Amino acid sequence: MSDKKATLKVDGVDQIFELPVYSGTLGPDVIDVGSLTAGDMFTYDPGFVSTAACESKITYIDGGKGILLHRGYPIDQLAEHSDYLETCYLLLYGELPTAQEKDAFVTTVKRHTMVHEQIRTFFNGFRRDAHPMAVMCGVVGALSAFYHDSLDISDEHHRQVAAFRLIAKMPTLAAMSYKFSIGQPFMYPDNTMGYAENFLHMMFGNPCEPSNVSPVLAKAMDRIFLLHADHEQNASTSTVRLAGSSGANPFACMAAGIAALWGPSHGGANEAVLEMLEEIGDVSRIDEFVARAKDKDDPFRLMGFGHRVYKNFDPRAKVMKEAADDVLAELGIDNDPLLAIAKRLEQIALEDPYFIERKLYPNVDFYSGIILKAIGIPTSMFTVIFAVGRTVGWVAHWNEMISGSYRIGRPRQLYTGYTQRDFVSLDERG
Ligand code: CMC
Question: Quick check: pTM over 0.85?
Answer without folding.
Answer: yes
